[in-house]
Design a protein that fits this description.
30% strand, Alpha-Beta Plaits, 10 strands, two-stranded antiparallel sheet
Length: 166
């Protein structure tokens, strides 16, 4: 079974409830099983994320299927939870990004794996390093990628995984 790593974020409404429901729905996908969920981290928006801070987390999922099938399921969850269709930037109730799908390299419209900007985003790297500290990307550890970012992005843990998940 391929292992998939996801980044989830929310900055509208009840952010924690949005994320909890999204993880529950990921676990309800046929032939998918949530293996690990990170703590919740609060981060300031980057790019055109709006005025409200995000809650972010990382999820590890075992999936029996293709990256395209799983991407479709993630998009369905986003739509069910009230995420509007593109444009993709801006405030959102839920955002689910596939970071890694086993060791696949995919470059298709709407699906790029590994996620092309993951090494530039502390809000992705910090939760990911919590659930998979030994992971390397492009020959560097997650810690090395975070060191390269410096202090340009603040990521604050607000709840440990065991405090909010299950």
């Amino acid at each position: 079974m391929p292992t998939v790593y996801l980044s989830l974020g929310s900055n509208l409404g009840d952010r924690e409830a949005n994320l909890r429901r999204a993880v529950q729905m990921l676990n309800e996908i046929p032939r998918a099983r949530v293996v690990a969920v990170s703590s919740l981290y609060e981060t300031a928006p980057i790019e055109d994320g709006g005025p409200d801070d995000y809650l972010n987390l990382a999820v590890k999922v075992d999936v029996d299927g293709t990256a395209q099938e799983f991407h479709h399921e993630c998009s369905r969850i986003e739509q069910t939870l009230g995420r509007p269709a593109p444009p993709r930037r801006g405030p959102r109730l839920i955002d689910i990004d596939i970071l890694l799908f086993d060791d696949a390299c995919i470059n298709e419209p709407g699906l790029q794996v590994p996620h092309p900007r993951m090494t530039q985003r502390a809000f992705v790297l910090v939760p990911l390093s919590e659930i998979e500290p030994s992971l390397t990307l492009h020959g560097k550890s997650l810690t090395e990628w975070l060191r390269l970012l410096g202090n340009s992005q603040t990521v604050q843990r607000v709840k440990r995984a065991e405090e909010w998940w299950r």
